[in-house]
Design a protein that fits this description.
This protein is mostly beta strands and 481 residues long. Helices cover 1% and strands 52% of the residues.
Length: 481
């Protein structure tokens, strides 16, 4: 039994004074990454340890495969497998009493992250919103991309498709953001240990200002075959305007070019009904904005024209006519029913009839939109009443020193006229005219006269009205003693 035990082979270990150095070609590992670990054993004499010297390896994170190895030319080699946990692995090796002075440090996963670069594609969404691809690239201090690193995404607006993503083989973690508002997206490498702040990158996503368009129509309730005016006003947003147009809703439309500001267009509807009129603007990024207004087009009716005239028209006296057809009348054409016509831009006209009778007056009004309408009225022109001259004298008898007063107030003119002149013949060879004579008084109807010689004098009065008609009075005899 003792003989058998003495035959068991004892492992060859390094002398106590030997120096062990642990090295690796990779100081940073991704999750599930591997690195070759080399332990070099140098004896006190400076020579490599004997081949077959057993070296045992330890690590604080991950696993070693194998955990023990024997030297060849003074080196023992194992593999560190990082596993799925981020952190810092301290790798050491010992053989007998020999140990390295300083363990080998390898950072794994998130612990190695030194920077995060975040990009957004596209960086700007339309005003109505859109979807953006957010990519976070994680790298170590030397700029090497890190795979298998968990990245946490957060946003100030919108919705993220995934809030936690593991970097791929190229060291990129990708998610999408859907937003209609400007947003700031942060990508943070999830820290390997609690209490760590991690490494964060940030990107901004902006929202384009859409163009605006305003559409106004006049009149609000147009009629068929009349002109409807439309005003289109475009305000540019973030991007230049590509085109604008208006669709009148009846199968016809009109392009407005790259309109910025306001413009006016006209359209005529031929069929009554309700129409959806749409104005549309688009910018150079394809952003499209439309505005709609509804108008009710009614059937065009003829103009309603009414005509009135002054009362009691008489021959040779002006008759006043007035037409009423509403606003927007371009012209009035008058037919006075006696063969005479005229045109006016105003709604009033006057006419003098030279003979009596019933007349039909016709007025045609023409609107600025082309509509017309006709109205009529009848006037009965009556003969003019003849003027009548009449006067009194006071006193009727007197002396050559008497101032006789002649008063023609009882005289009348023809209908619709006034007396414009009084002609006096005093029978003594003297005549006077009012208003020309300085002795005319009381609105020219009264005049005084003295007779220088006694006798009987026959005084005659003749009047003239504003139509030129005249009348001579019955005479009055004056006794002068």
């Amino acid at each position: 039994m003792l003989a058998a035990s003495s035959c068991q082979k004892v492992p060859l270990l390094a002398p106590t004074a030997s120096v062990i150095t642990v090295i690796t070609s990779r100081s940073v590992l991704p999750i599930n990454g591997t690195a070759q670990i080399i332990a070099t054993v140098i004896e006190q004499s400076g020579t490599p340890a004997h081949d077959g010297t057993l070296v045992t390896f330890t690590t604080t994170l991950g696993t070693l495969d194998p955990q023990e190895a024997v030297t060849s030319n003074g080196q023992a080699v194992v593999t560190l497998r990082a596993g799925t946990q981020s952190g810092t692995a301290e790798v050491s090796a010992f053989s007998g009493g020999a140990r390295p002075e300083t363990p080998l440090t390898i950072t794994i996963g998130a612990a190695a992250a030194a920077g995060v670069t975040v990009t957004a594609s596209p960086a700007t969404v339309p005003s109505a919103g859109g979807t953006v691809t957010i990519a976070a690239s994680v790298s170590d201090a030397t700029g090497n991309r890190l795979a298998g690193v968990p990245v946490s995404f957060s946003t100030t607006a919108g919705t993220l498709a995934a809030s936690q993503v593991i970097t791929d083989a190229s060291g990129a973690a990708t998610t999408t953001l859907t937003t209609s508002l400007a947003a700031t997206v942060d990508a943070t490498v999830i820290p390997a240990t609690s209490g760590s702040t991690g490494v964060t990158g940030r990107v901004a996503v902006t929202v384009d200002d859409a163009p605006t368009i305003v559409l106004l129509s006049s009149p609000a309730a147009p009629e068929t075959n009349t002109v409807t005016n439309f005003t289109v006003t475009v305000t540019k947003g973030t991007n230049p305007i590509r085109s604008a147009s208006i669709d009148f809703g009846d199968g016809q439309s009109q392009g407005l070019g790259a309109l910025v500001g306001g413009t006016s267009v006209t359209h005529t509807y031929t069929v009554p009904g309700q129409y959806n009129v749409t104005a549309t603007v688009s910018d150079t990024t394809g952003e499209v904005v439309s505005v709609l207004t509804r108008i009710n087009v009614s059937l065009q009716l003829p103009l309603a024209v009414t005509v009135t005239s002054s009362a009691s028209p008489t021959v040779n006296s002006p008759v006043a006519f007035t037409a009423s057809a509403g606003l927007g009348i371009l012209r009035y054409d008058w037919d006075f029913g006696d063969g005479f016509t005229t045109s006016t831009t105003g709604a009033a006209a006057a006419h003098v009839y030279s003979s009596p009778g019933l007349r039909t007056v016709t007025v045609t009004a023409t609107h600025t939109d082309g509509r017309t309408g006709t109205g009529q009225t009848q006037v009965n022109v009556v003969p003019t009443e003849a003027p009548a001259a009449s006067f009194t004298v006071s006193p009727k008898a007197g002396t050559t020193a008497t101032s006789f007063i002649f008063n023609a107030s009882a005289s009348t003119s023809s209908t619709g006229t006034t007396i414009v002149r009084y002609e006096w013949n005093f029978g003594d060879g003297t005549t006077r005219s009012c208003p020309a004579d300085s002795l005319c008084r009381n609105g020219n109807r009264t005049i005084s006269h003295e007779f220088g010689v006694a006798g009987t004098y026959r005084v005659i009065l003749t009047i003239t009205d504003s139509n030129g008609a005249t009348a001579t009075s019955a005479t009055e005899d004056v006794e002068v003693s």
